[in-house]
Design brief:
alpha+beta; 203 residues; globular; 2 domains; Immunoglobulin-like; 15% helix; 7-stranded mixed sheet; single chain
Length: 203
């Protein structure tokens, strides 16, 4: 019995070390250095992560996007209403709708105080075109959670709502900072440090 626990602890330790190495490789973009012989097209962090500008007037949140979200849960259906406020004004605001990768998502409405020309969604990539330069948009969407073992699921007595929020892309001079060259590897954008204010309503 004692030997079994030792083996389990050793296996867990090895898995944790492997996860840390892989995580470090993803974060720093050093997959080529850490794992020689990998696909040369799969180079992480092709564009360096930019440093945010110094906050003005002592406001620590001045350079950070703010996501205000209201979430309601009814069985396996999640309805999300969000306002994404960016620190930089632009004609086009981009974001990433993670939930599309895991569940059935229907966008119910998209709007902005700056007026909206329209929006396009290519997979999880969302682009909102404003009538005039602005720094925020509102979005409402519905997620139908699958009944399975994924990270976003509805099960008996358990609901997993990981990655339900639409996340702003890091914008510099009106353009998102791309994170990866390879289209099937990781998220396409670098995401800034973002403040979230979330209200959840459920049974």
């Amino acid at each position: 019995m004692k030997k079994t626990w030792v083996v389990i602890l050793l296996a867990e330790t090895i898995l944790l070390i492997a996860a840390a190495v892989i995580g470090y490789g993803i974060y720093t973009g050093r997959f080529g250095d850490l794992f020689p012989g990998t696909d040369p097209d799969m180079e992480a962090a092709a564009t360096p992560r930019p440093a945010p500008a110094a906050p003005s007037g002592g406001d620590a949140t001045a350079v950070r996007p703010l996501v205000t979200a209201s979430v309601s849960l009814d069985g396996g259906v999640v309805t999300v209403e969000q306002t994404l406020a960016y620190p930089e004004v632009s004609d086009t605001l981009r974001a990433y709708l993670f939930a599309v990768n895991y569940a059935d998502v229907t966008i119910l409405s998209v709007g902005s105080d700056s007026g909206i020309l329209g929006h396009t969604r290519n997979g999880p990539n969302l682009e909102v075109n404003l009538s005039q330069p602005g720094a925020s948009f509102h979005i409402k969407y519905r997620i139908l959670l699958p009944y399975d073992d994924s990270i976003m699921a509805a099960r008996n007595n358990l609901v997993l709502m990981n990655k339900i929020f639409c996340t702003p892309a890091y914008m510099v001079n009106g353009e998102p900072v791309e994170a990866f060259l390879h289209p099937q590897f990781g998220s396409p954008f670098v995401y800034p440090l973002t403040d979230y204010r979330v209200t959840v309503r459920a049974d």
